[in-house]
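Hey,
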Amino acid sequence: MRLSRIGRRLLVFNLLLVFLPVAGFLYLDIYEKQLLEAQERSMVQQGRVLSAALSGRGVLEGGEVEQVLRRLNRRLDARLRVVDTEGLVLADTSRLRPKEYDRAGGAGPSPATAGQAAASPASAAPARRNLLYRAGAFLADLTRRAPPPSEPAPSAEEAAAGKLDGKEVRAALSGRYGRATRVSPGQRSVTLSSAIPIESGGGIAGAVVVSQSSYRILQDLYAVRLRIAEIFAVSVLAALLLSVFLAATISRPLAALREESAAILDRRGRLRGTIRGLARKDEIGDLARALEELTRRLEDRQRGAETFASDVAHELKNPLASIRSAAELLHDVREPEERRRFVGIIQEEVARMERQVSQLAEITRIDARLENEEQVAVPLNGLLAQIAERFRMRESGRVGFDLRMPEEILAVRAAPERLTQVFENLLDNAAGFSPDGAQVRVALERSPDGAAVVRVEDEGPGIPAENLPRIFDRFFSNRPEGKAARLHPGLGLAIVKAIVEGYGGSVGAAGGRNRGAIFEVRLPASRTGVFPAGAPTGPG
């Protein structure tokens, strides 16, 4: 399966995490060095114990030395040899009886036997023959420098003559501590050798030579390396499977969303449907549902734009038809009075079209620029009082205006001129439908959830129930046919709805208890603020 770019990145990241256990191979070198140092300290301590037991005895005798070795053998785990001042071996733990030697806790085979075991591939650690181990060891060896050269092991003639003449022995017979490291042929194990002088009567009576191979340490290290290699191999496999699984659960749904997004657009870039949301409860599901909501709203917007264009064409067609008819008749009419009447019709229809175009442009600006306009904290108490006072002056007592304001100042964050448009259109609509002597009631209150609520109620004929769903539609008018209907193209309430919903609020209409209509504007609590009476309110 071909991995996507996200899948490849997940694979690389997982593999980087998996390669961390490989650092264990590098640490094993340090661990091996520490083990060898601890082994040497143990050997030196054992040699010092034997040297102390033999010190002060004068000339060393083989039988006596062997008896001491027998008593100490149960407490030793290295090979111990005692040499005289000429380097001749007086006693050797490897010469003890096999049963006693086995019970001694593993002093190890003799040097010849140890050398054969180290050199023999059949007796090497089983881990070294494992293919997985060899692959891991090869990677580790790439970062490891070659070990420094070491002194060769004693010759066969020297061992057969029962004489030790290594540098550590010479150092001990001269009264100093001596040590040597000999590499076993055929593999990387080494034999550590330490020599401690035996003092007697102020001189040197011989030396204790302690030797032990690192073969068993290496066996354990090989097993650890194999275990690390196994963990690494399993981790790599797990990383591959996990990467494939994550790629399938992440990149595949994203690729499906991409293909679906490309499929819902036609060649002209118009939406042909919506993206289907996913039931997944993760971020990809959230993304799919957000895209579904986004495309749904875009589709509604597209449908609204198409309907809007159709409505505009329909509304402008009527005045244009009137203008054309009047112009054609004007060409044939000779009476001055008739000509003035047709000219008046043309001027009236042109004015009507100008109002329609102006309000259409206003709605377009509201849709496109409302959120970008400067917004301040507008005190609704004072704004509604100012608007009501202007309408009192305009109506000259024909219609009364009753305001009910709360004691505190309720402010809304918005553009002042937009809120003025909202409430002027509502009061103009209420005054236009109200008969002489009627009252228009304007009430402002703060709802329990913190929203600002403004109700405008008139005493007009009311809104028929069948017209309530369309009352805020563009170009819809509830006025009876006639001059008044032509003067109101049906865009005032549509502008109110566009502004209020642009601020995240809502507007609704209902019939009054007895007669008339009630319009309710609700602006969200996120835009409102309450101040004590008389407190100044400025930009928020």
